[in-house]
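A.,

Following up on our hallway conversation. Structure tokens first:
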């Protein structure tokens, strides 16, 4: 009777164990935490939907961008050009073919641009031999060759901007120094002039002839003590009377005359006699000996000593060495610098290179006497494919959005946002832009009312543009004052339009997800705290029950003993 009244029985504290607490907690979690987790799981599906929509929006944007006025580079689809070339000797190129004017252009090449190339006279010996040609000036830079080898000379020349030097072996065991300009054109012709404006000594010795002094010798062999008696001879404006003077005396007087610019001497002849020689002291054509008197006629003394048989004029054969400046041999200029010359539709053009640009068209001559014609036309061959791609991308976007918003298992939180995006695109697409009554349905497009697709018929499109694309361009591209549907749709989708709305949606979605994660953390923390306290309470209840069971156990024994004693 006592056991039934107490109702606890032996070991009832064990019933309040951790398993019971976990079962209670699981029931509570199902009602508080799991609803939040289900919402979070839905975010992954929502993210995928928004990602898919964003992809389709971007693809539609790319498809419509080609029809827009807003081109970051080049031109839109309606201004594309094609080029056909006939002939040879000319290569045509353009960074932007669509920017070229339509029409034809004939190009006739007259001359190709060339580098300037010089090759020295043949050189015997070793490339390590000393050049010793004095100072060579190349494009204003002086190089002293007096103690420099040919190999070292090429190294020094190669330090000069615009030229390149090398040593070229020949079959006879000799070699030549070659110097060439690095670029073509007359502007790059190699200049060997020194600062004085004359050919430098080194250039003359290597590529031509060194400057010479002027020298005259008498034809008559004389003895040193023989009297001249040739009258007055004028030398470079200085008068010297030869009367009653032997040749040695005359020579001394000439050589002692200040600023006369010559040196006189007696040259041995084979018969034991001598010839009178008068030589300029410096080289150069401007140092030629002048025998004229102030009136301009040849002095009597000069005619007597260096004149012809009748003494009427100087005998040029007695000018045994003629005064000359440094010269370079044109034959050593193995390739002469020249500009490219061509005619384009009869107009003359020249260029230091073999390329010239005319109205955005880059023309490169590859062959002298080349003759080629380029025809540039409007190119509409890609328009049909671009229009079909545009329709396809619209259909893909429409299907992606509508499949989501009309689905019973839709993942998006805000269907109206997607619905509004699609309606915005449709309102622009099925409008006429600013082109009056013109619309896409006049250019091979039809609307399928059953599935909502925009269909495109290439044959109908080609038929619609057979007379030109002016109206089509007005419909899609328009002008700044009257933008077409392609331009409007481009701007509608761009970063400030639908694309921005999608970005804002994603940001809002991330914010909602973050809020739910925090809500889940709070719910789980609250649940953990609740059942931690409950666990502690159950432990206390267990102790109390055990104590009560111990007390009831003693009472039970007393009752049993009393019953036995009766």
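Then the amino acids I'd put at each of the 566 positions:
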């Amino acid at each position: 009777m006592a056991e039934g009244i107490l109702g606890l029985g032996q070991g009832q504290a064990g019933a309040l164990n951790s398993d019971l607490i976990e079962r209670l907690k699981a029931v509570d979690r199902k009602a508080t935490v799991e609803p939040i987790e289900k919402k979070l799981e839905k975010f992954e599906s929502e993210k995928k939907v928004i990602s898919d929509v964003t992809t389709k929006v971007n693809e539609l944007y790319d498809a419509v961008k080609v029809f827009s006025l807003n081109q970051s580079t080049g031109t839109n689809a309606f201004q594309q050009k094609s080029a056909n070339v006939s002939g040879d000797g000319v290569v045509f190129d353009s960074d932007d073919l669509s920017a070229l004017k339509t029409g034809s252009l004939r190009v006739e090449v007259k001359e190709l641009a060339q580098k300037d190339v010089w090759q020295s006279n043949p050189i015997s010996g070793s490339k390590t031999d000393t050049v010793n040609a004095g100072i060579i000036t190349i494009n204003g830079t002086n190089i002293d060759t007096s103690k420099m080898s040919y190999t070292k000379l090429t190294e020094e020349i190669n330090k000069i901007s615009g030229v390149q030097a090398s040593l070229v072996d020949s079959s006879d065991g000799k070699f030549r120094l070659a110097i060439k300009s690095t670029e073509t054109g007359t502007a790059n012709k190699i200049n060997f002039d020194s600062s004085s404006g004359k050919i430098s000594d080194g250039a003359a010795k290597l590529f031509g002839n060194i400057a010479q002094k002027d020298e005259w010798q008498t034809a008559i062999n004389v003895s040193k003590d023989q009297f001249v008696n040739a009258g007055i001879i004028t030398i470079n404006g200085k008068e010297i009377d030869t009367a009653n003077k032997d040749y040695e005396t005359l020579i001394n007087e000439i050589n002692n005359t200040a600023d006369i610019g010559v040196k006189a001497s007696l040259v041995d002849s084979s018969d034991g006699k001598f010839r009178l020689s008068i030589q300029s002291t410096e080289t150069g054509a401007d140092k030629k000996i002048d025998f004229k008197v102030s009136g301009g006629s040849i002095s009597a003394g000069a005619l007597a000593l260096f004149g012809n048989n009748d003494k009427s004029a100087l005998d040029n054969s007695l000018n045994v060495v003629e005064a000359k400046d440094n010269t370079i041999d044109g034959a050593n200029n193995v390739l002469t610098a020249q500009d490219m010359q061509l005619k384009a539709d009869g107009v003359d053009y020249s260029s230091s290179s073999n390329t010239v640009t005319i109205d955005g068209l880059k023309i490169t001559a590859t062959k002298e006497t080349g003759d080629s014609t380029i025809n540039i036309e409007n190119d509409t061959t890609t328009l049909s494919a671009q229009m079909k791609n545009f329709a396809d991308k619209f259909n893909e976007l429409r299907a992606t959005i509508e499949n989501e918003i009309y689905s019973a298992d839709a993942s998006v939180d805000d269907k109206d946002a997607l619905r509004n995006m699609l309606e915005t695109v449709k309102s622009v697409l099925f409008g006429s832009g600013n082109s009056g009554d013109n619309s896409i349905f006049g250019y091979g497009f039809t609307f399928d009312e059953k599935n909502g697709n925009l269909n495109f018929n290439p044959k109908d499109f080609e038929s619609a543009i057979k007379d030109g694309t002016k109206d089509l361009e007005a419909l899609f591209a328009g002008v700044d004052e009257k933008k077409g549907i392609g331009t409007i749709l481009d701007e509608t989708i761009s970063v400030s339009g639908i694309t921005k709305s999608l970005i804002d949606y994603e940001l809002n979605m991330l914010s909602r997800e973050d809020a739910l994660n925090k809500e889940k953390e709070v719910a789980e923390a609250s649940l953990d705290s609740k059942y931690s306290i409950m666990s502690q309470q159950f432990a206390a209840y267990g102790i109390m029950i055990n104590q009560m069971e111990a007390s009831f156990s003693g009472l039970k024994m007393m009752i049993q003993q009393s019953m036995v004693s009766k």
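Residues 1-14 have pLDDT under 50 and may be disordered. Curious whether your intuition agrees with the design.

B.
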